[in-house]
Design brief:
2 domains; 3-stranded antiparallel sheet; about 130 residues; 4-stranded antiparallel sheet; about 30% strand; 1 helix; alpha+beta
Length: about 130
């Protein structure tokens, strides 16, 4: 579940005020300085209440494993994926068949646009492994 992720900045209002007064002091001390830049951190909190569900099931007809992914993330959703064989941990694009809307991505992975079914995006992977 991706729910309740909050992004926070490390800056506080006190630091912003401190940087502003230091900059004013520098300007007053050195009359030759015509302009200056002050870097300020901005704070924005974003709450994400979306979810991702991943399940694996065995197809009774083909005896292959199917990976199902569902999410309610809004907008176009793309999945970048690949496979690692054994314990080699070398990322590679698995051989076909691939789900519809799948293209090669940098020759080492695949990119699949998820289909929409009502409000839920879904993806089924049927690896030939």
């Amino acid at each position: 579940d991706i729910g309740n992720v909050i992004l926070k900045s490390e800056s506080t209002v006190d630091k912003v005020q401190e940087n502003s007064s230091e900059s004013e002091n520098l300007k007053n001390e050195n009359s030759q300085v015509e302009g200056f830049n002050v870097e300020l951190s901005l704070t924005k909190e974003v709450t994400v209440n979306n979810s991702i569900s991943v399940s694996v099931r065995k197809c009774s007809e083909t005896a292959k494993y199917l990976l199902d992914l569902e999410t309610d993330i809004p907008g176009d959703v793309f999945l970048h994926w690949g496979a690692c064989r054994d314990d080699l941990r070398i990322w590679e694009a698995p051989p076909a068949p691939h789900p519809p809307q799948t293209v090669s991505f940098k020759k080492t992975a695949l990119r699949t646009q998820l289909k929409i079914n009502h409000i839920i995006w879904y993806f089924t992977l049927y690896p030939p492994l």
